[in-house]
Design brief:
- The structure holds two protein chains of two kinds.
- Chain A is mainly alpha-helical.
- Chain A contains 14 helices and two strands; from the N terminus they run ααααααααααβαβααα.
- A two-stranded antiparallel ribbon of chain A has the order 1-2.
- Chain A starts with a helix and ends in a 7-residue tail after the last helix.
- Chain B has one domain.
- Helices cover 19% and strands 43% of the residues of chain B.
- Chain B has four helices and 15 strands.
- Chain B is globular, with a radius of gyration of 22 Å.
- Chain B starts with a helix and ends with a strand.
- The chains are: A mainly alpha, B alpha+beta.
- At the A-B interface, α4, α5 and α7 of A face loops of B.
């Protein structure tokens, strides 16, 4: 039905040449700039990237009217300077309400399949419903959010230009999805190293060799161009999990304490770490993996004592810091 | 230009009329059809449902604020012949929805009506068409009060909200929430209808008794489930769903 509507809109756009409506849909494509080692992400047919959609999504990302009392925006918990993550274990929502999971980085979410730490959302274009409607986040029905936006002539025009429709649950979530797909971080020191334009320092190089070594198995979960295999695993953070992780979605005991393996891109900037923000810095994370984590029936077999020396842990930390993409952090395309 | 378009349209309309009129000639004379509507009469242990009233359910004072559910998979079982399955039809039932049109069927005696409370796994998966991509008048589109979960994308099949008295002081001061969803919560219902469908509009008037939903449940102690955080309580309500429905006329 949605595709059919889009087709009709396109037809309308082309046949209405004689008298162009003031708010015609603008299909100027938005081109993602990607280095050769990055694949082009899969973009859903019902939300092709266009300049108008990305611009609208960006505007919404900084829009306080999406929160029930207009007190917070998406950006409140996803800061560009922190690689669109936050520096608190749990970020306050409206009225200071705290959820129970650490705000994740949004970099390279274009490459996610199932979304959220437990994979409870099947596609990025539905994800915006979670923060907008969650009681501990923005706490607003998306229908009420649409009413607010449609009452604003500037938004009314922007939605028509982007989708040929007013603000509604579809266009709000798709616009935010479109903007987030443009948050590509692909120009870290490590990326430049891969392209042969810079060399790693000796300590970084030692860390790289450890990272891609069976001694640590780091890269078997955090491999690939995006430094994640997009798996869902239990990393032995606890013996008993207060937050069930993926079990909360599937109900399966084998999913207890199982969470998304996140990208390590810009990892030095996204502290605190783990699903609940319980590890304050990279040293604590490396120590956790060096110790092998707590016993848990679902713990992945690769999580085991590593017996890394202090020097080796420092080397790994130095390598992890090469994943920082300084240009991304100040890219004006993502600023308000 | 305008005149030309208008005359073309008029010509098309006449052609359409001529050709659609032919369909009637193919119909066998004497076969009558009736439109079947469904209506759910909410009751609490037989008493009329009212969101301002405090009821006693299994000895616990309860006040209801929301009592909505989805009905799908509707099948009418005639006295003779195959069951008539109503494809892709969902009803969002609330205390205020009243009569909803379901299907047009041949006139005759229908002795059973089957349906499920919930949303089928394909529609519930949100993987293709999802609740944001549906037209606003589709019952499976996003609703307010919401009948969907965002964090675990899918529908609330049955949503009962209200307040309960948990300490026996007569004050209904704790929030009650029974939100049933996820595929295992889909519940089939089969009701003996004995309905003679006649030419024109017909109504299947069913009773939906909320007290029966909580049969065997102590609401002063067990009054909240969002399914995944208390699957046992959700399953207990799911299992009570068939008994909550009965045919009125």
């Amino acid at each position: 039905m949605r595709y059919f509507s889009s087709f009709l809109l396109l037809l309308l756009a082309f046949t209405s040449c004689e008298k162009e409506p003031a708010s015609a849909i603008d299909l100027t494509p938005y081109i993602l700039e990607l280095p050769p080692h990055f694949p082009y992400p899969s973009i859903p047919q019902d939300n092709e990237l266009t300049e108008a959609r990305v611009a609208l999504g960006k505007k919404l990302f900084f829009e306080p009217a999406l929160s029930v009392d207009s007190s917070i925006t998406c950006e409140s918990c996803h800061k560009q300077a922190l690689a669109f993550a936050h520096d608190l274990p749990l970020s306050p929502g409206v009225k200071g309400r705290l959820g129970f999971r650490n705000a994740p980085t949004l970099v390279n979410v274009a490459y996610l399949g199932r979304v959220n730490k437990d994979g409870g959302v099947p596609k990025l274009d539905l994800q915006a419903l979670v923060p907008i409607e969650d009681h501990a986040e923005m706490s607003l029905s998306v229908l009420h959010a649409a009413d607010r936006l449609n009452a604003d002539p500037e938004y009314a025009t922007a939605f028509q230009r982007a989708y040929g429709e007013p603000a509604n649950p579809f266009t709000i979530t798709r616009a935010l999805g479109a903007f987030q797909r443009t948050l590509i971080s692909a120009n870290s020191i490590y990326d430049q190293y891969l392209q042969g334009t810079v060399s790693l320092s000796p300590v970084e190089e030692r860390g790289r060799l450890l990272f891609f070594n069976e001694r640590t198995n780091c890269s078997s979960c955090h491999g690939g161009f995006n430094l994640t295999e997009n798996g869902f695993l239990n990393n032995g953070l606890y013996e008993t999990y207060e937050d069930w992780g993926r079990r909360r979605v599937t109900g399966l005991p084998e999913d207890d304490g199982v969470f998304r393996v996140p990208t390590l891109r810009n990892i030095a900037l996204t502290a605190p770490y783990m699903h609940d923000g319980s590890l304050p810095d990279l040293q604590a994370v490396l120590q956790h993996y060096n110790d092998g984590g707590y016993a848990h029936p679902n713990k992945d077999s690769r999580i085991r004592p590593l017996s890394l020396s202090d020097q080796e842990l420092s080397d790994l930390e130095a390598f992890l810091k090469t994943f920082t993409d300084e240009a991304f952090l100040t890219d004006p395309r993502f600023r308000e | 230009m305008t005149k030309f378009k208008f005359s073309t349209l008029a010509l098309l309309a006449i052609f359409a009329l001529v050709f659609t009129a032919c369909d009637n000639d193919d119909e066998a004379p004497g076969i009558q059809e009736g439109t079947v509507n469904m209506m759910f009469e909410y009751t609490i242990d037989g008493a009329a449902f009212d969101t301002t009233q405090v009821y006693e359910v299994n000895g616990t004072a309860v006040k209801f604020s929301i009592a909505n559910f989805y009905v799908g998979g509707i099948e009418l079982i005639p006295e003779e012949g195959d069951a008539i399955a109503v494809e892709d039809k969902y009803l969002l039932v609330t205390p205020g929805t009243g009569m909803q049109e379901v299907v047009t069927v041949p006139a005759g005696h229908y002795h059973m009506v089957n349906f499920f409370v919930g949303v089928d796994p394909a529609a519930n998966s949100q993987s293709e068409e999802d609740f944001t991509s549906r037209d606003a008048d589709d019952p499976l589109a996003i609703q307010f009060p919401s009948m969907h979960w965002s964090w675990n994308s899918g529908y609330r099949f049955l949503r009962i909200d209200g307040q309960v008295d948990t300490d026996g002081d007569g004050e209904v001061d704790e929030l009650m929430a029974f939100h049933l969803g996820t595929n295992p919560m889909l519940q089939n219902v089969s009701v003996t209808a004995h309905k003679d469908v006649e030419d024109g509009s017909n109504m299947l008037h069913l009773q939906f008794d909320l007290a029966k939903l909580f049969d065997g449940i102590d609401l002063s102690a067990d009054y909240t489930t969002h399914t995944m955080n208390n699957p046992e309580l959700a399953a207990a309500v799911r299992d009570n769903i068939p008994a909550a429905f009965s045919m009125m006329h």
